[in-house]
UniProtKB/TrEMBL annotation:
Compartments in which it is found: Secreted
Cystine pairings recorded for this chain: 59-123, 72-133, 103-113, 167-231, 211-221, 306-316, 370-434, 414-424
SMART domains referenced in this protein's UniProt entry, alphabetically: SR
Gene Ontology CC terms: extracellular space; plasma membrane
Source superkingdom: Eukaryota
Pfam family, one: SRCR
Name of the protein in its database record: SRCR domain-containing protein
InterPro entries membership: SRCR, SRCR-like_dom_sf
PANTHER family documented for this protein: SRCR DOMAIN-CONTAINING PROTEIN
Phylogenetic placement of the source organism: Eukaryota, Metazoa, Chordata, Craniata, Vertebrata
Length: 464
């Protein structure tokens, strides 16, 4: 027993404790990363890390696909396709923060991988590491919303550095499901055919795509082979999954049917129906089934009756599309819980999508959250509530500027699994010992963004 004690405490414990100090204090656990450099894109480029208020690079000693996998995962860019070395995306400048990075591939952040102490390296910038992620090899193009739309449009893939389309032979919801997963766009509701989003140009890369729905990437599915097809661009495949960039979670309910937006009649409209809409839009839970003014055009649904557990509003019982006895004075609406939180970033003017000062709406007024005990668990809940992916940091001390007005929450305590920030323990609304110099914020991956289902939307207006 004495021998074990002396070995453990005289030798192994100091080593373990030294590693503990190195791991937790050499670099911030949730350091920000970005991809940049010559020829870089959203999901490919030179890897850079933000540390000590400066961006720096990563040396390619030992750099491999496992390391790249963690970077791609951290940036919500799908899976790693390559781990370029020797400054493939050009030489960086400034510090070289990491060297001898060794990841298993399962880590959540690159900083969690083994590496030399921050700033210690034997490299120059001609050895800067890079990544190419699968998220950069597929895109959705929607002529109605500018060239590239994040979560709805014509499917295009990048092969041999050229973008091309996918033929719709055999195209079905399983194929669309893989595209949605690859682009972090949630669940596919349909798979459009016959150039629904317009005809593409150039190559037709894939035909007879056959996915089970569980693949990580469209190119993992069975297909004829790149460039082998019997199609024209009149058969380009599409995915009408979600609309990108919207943060609106309250308004008049409209659904897309027969290529036309139309409203829903409020006969028997209740909180269960609203709950399904909020869930379908990724907007949290229903707060009320409200009225938001008159729409126009078709009235698609009437006498909607949901249990509250359906995945889509159209799964609920109703009279049938276009069958109703209503006018637009009876258009239905919803107010969802996620309309009660926002992120404000002064650098992006007003309300920012996925990084900024946290503000919540209570008692008809927006107010801030005090940063007492604010940590990554709290930021994780905010990110989930806004559909923004994983949290990278939980900035404190008015990192995004001082707010004004009420300070609604203080001493917030989240486990990280709550659906809404207000589900976490806190002092009570309006009870605090803070000033706005302690306003809390969240910081997310540069690629993060929310997307709402294209088949349903809430129109921008105010309740009556």
């Amino acid at each position: 027993m004495l021998l074990w004690y002396s070995l453990c405490h005289a030798h192994w414990f100091p080593l373990a404790f030294s590693y503990f100090l190195f791991y937790f204090f050499s670099v911030p656990h949730y350091a920000r990363i970005k991809l940049t450099g010559s020829g870089s894109a959203r999901c490919s480029g030179r890897v850079e890390i933000y540390h000590q208020k400066r961006w720096g690079t990563v040396c390619d000693d030992g750099w491999d696909l496992n390391d790249a996998e963690v970077v791609c995962k951290q940036l919500d860019c799908g899976t790693a396709l390559a781990a370029p070395k020797e400054a493939h995306f050009g030489d960086g400048s400034g510090p070289i923060w990491l060297d001898d990075v060794s990841c298993s591939g399962n880590e959540r952040f690159i900083i969690q991988c083994q590496h030399r102490r921050s700033g210690e390296n034997s490299c120059t910038h001609n050895k800067d590491a890079g990544v190419i992620c699968s998220g950069d090899q597929i895109r959705l193009v929607n002529p109605d919303t500018s060239e590239s739309a994040h979560c709805s449009g014509r499917v295009e893939i990048n092969h041999r550095n050229r973008w091309g389309t996918v033929c719709d032979d055999g195209w079905d919801p399983n194929d669309a499901e893989v595209v949605c997963r690859e682009l972090n766009c949630g669940t596919a509701l349909n798979a459009t055919k016959s150039a629904h989003f317009g005809k593409g140009t150039g190559q037709i890369w894939l035909d007879d795509v056959d996915c089970s729905g569980s693949e990580r990437s469209l190119t993992e599915c069975q297909h004829r082979g790149f460039g082998i097809h019997s199609c024209t661009h009149s058969k380009d495949a599409g995915v009408p999954v979600r609309l990108s960039g919207s943060t609106l979670c309250s308004g008049r309910v409209e659904i897309f049917y027969n290529n036309t937006w139309g409203t829903v009649c409020d006969d028997n409209w209740d909180i269960n129906d609203a709950e399904v809409v909020c869930r379908e839009l990724g907007c949290g839970t229903a707060q009320s089934a409200a009225v938001f003014g008159e729409g126009s055009g078709s009235i698609w649904l009437d006498d909607v009756s949901c249990s509250g557990s359906e995945r889509s509003l159209t799964e609920c019982q109703h009279r049938g599309f276009g069958t109703h006895d209503c006018t637009h004075s009876q258009d239905a609406g919803v107010v969802c819980s996620d309309a009660q939180i926002r992120l404000v970033n002064p650098e992006k003017s007003g309300s920012a999508r996925c990084s900024g000062r946290v503000e919540i709406y209570h008692n008809n007024s927006w107010g801030t959250v005090c940063d007492d005990v604010w940590d990554i668990n709290h930021a994780e809940v905010v990110c989930r509530q806004l559909g923004c992916g994983r949290a990278l940091e939980a900035p404190r001390s008015d990192h995004f500027g001082e707010g004004k007005g009420q300070i609604w929450l203080d001493d917030v305590s989240c486990s990280g699994i709550e659906r809404s920030l207000t589900e976490c323990q806190h002092r009570g609304f309006g009870l605090h010992d803070c000033g706005h110099r302690e306003d809390a914020g969240v910081l997310l991956p540069i690629s993060a963004g929310q997307a709402d289902y294209i088949f349903i939307k809430v129109s921008r207006s105010h309740p009556r």
